[in-house]
């Protein structure tokens, strides 16, 4: 279906602003002139909600661009689509499902059709709380009577990345349980975890929305054998399941009172707040898990009620549209300046790329413009010593999200000041760059002669005008992590609404799964049947089979 006229005009206005110089003659992608001209730019282009600050003053957004982007949000009916999501409408149209991860945060009042989603959530949360209390208090023990000291979560994708990221961020010495995450079907992963676990003291959660995922079911069978070898038929006392597929959990042999369900209106990459988050609660304690939900709930309330011009997830999404569709930047880097957030980029890679890696609109027409950018990242300062070279001087501008935490949880003030200084300096360096005059002056001061300056000058110039969004948290705790992750979730929703795509399905992951079946059979048989595979795959299979045999 052709784009609605008003929407097409709104897109054209944004694209035109990004192509033409500004009225003062500066380039539409430039940032330095905006900061130079407006002493209050930080005040006007940063927003704080419940202590979380978003600063877009080091982007090239100006008043006109922001107004055009907000008009686009209006033309795309972003607010209407948001409200339809909150009303439990089946906005995931290709799967005919509602999208209600907000209900998981416990605000109450979420329904879908006849179903009281909030009541179901409350019932499961109460069971999770009781289960945690029983494990932590020692009422629930392993088959040999020992208390559980470790929890192993077996899951992949959304059944792994969110909980693993949150636990890594929030776990502190003295927390109730140690948590381990097994995702990859590569048994090297299991072999790396196994020596750290005593089966008599390990609680195993099989986390899978579908309970059919090959990697998870293979690992679950491996681990169940390991439990059985140690505690025999008592293995069941060490197992619990987190899933929507109650028939499959029963078939796997997990008792119904050990199954923590959630519904198909929770997408895998949005599921850390559901039963899938049980490992987080077991590891950090129930109170921490509740604070995590509270942080997300606070961001939900903001997203649902704040005017779009002051709505953090919407503003973050509009900046992305400016970068991707206006200026043609194809990637974004996430740089948390906090080691505890080391797995946040991995979680956001799935959240953003599985959601926004789409090429048709909701009605199946080609989307006609770029959608989700490549997302990658590493904690700062590590990133500075690896890929930041390309972001400073490469030919592809890569906007960065720089995430700073003001107050650390350690006593090493000097280290923390250096960390913050580096994060702030990266944003400044990317924005300001270094021009030829500055490089020349610096080299002259260091005693370089004219020939040397001429030789090195092009290599030492930084173009600058490279955008960053800074997100500042007062401290990193369950509440602020909940806010931060929900901020990105609602940003993803907003981008889906702006691009007119379905951010909640993931058909693109299916083909590889289908094709793996016949290839697995060829590996089991030791050779591919003639003509069964393409020439390249056949060649590789034959070579691998030869190496396995030899
Ligand atoms: O294959 C992709 C995917 O379906 C993700 O969307 C999901 O998070 C992951 O696999 C795991 O799925 P499940 O929780 O059903 O095992």
UniProtKB/TrEMBL annotation:
It catalyses: alpha-D-glucose 6-phosphate = beta-D-fructose 6-phosphate. SUPFAM superfamilies: SIS domain. PROSITE patterns: P_GLUCOSE_ISOMERASE_1 (PS00765), P_GLUCOSE_ISOMERASE_2 (PS00174), P_GLUCOSE_ISOMERASE_3 (PS51463). It comes from the Bacteria. Pathway: Carbohydrate degradation; glycolysis; D-glyceraldehyde 3-phosphate and glycerone phosphate from D-glucose: step 2/4; Carbohydrate biosynthesis; gluconeogenesis. Its main location: cytoplasm. GO terms for molecular function: glucose-6-phosphate isomerase activity. The active site is at residues 354, 385, 513. InterPro entries: G6P_Isomerase, G6P_Isomerase_C, Phosphoglucose_isomerase_CS, SIS_dom_sf, SIS_PGI_1, SIS_PGI_2. It is found in: Cytoplasm. Keywords: Cytoplasm, Gluconeogenesis, Glycolysis, Isomerase. Pfam families: PGI (PF00342). Its EC number is 5.3.1.9. The keyword Membrane does not apply. NCBIfam families: PRK00179.1 (NF001211). Catalyzes the reversible isomerization of glucose-6-phosphate to fructose-6-phosphate. Belongs to the GPI family. This is Glucose-6-phosphate isomerase. It comes from Paracraurococcus lichenis.
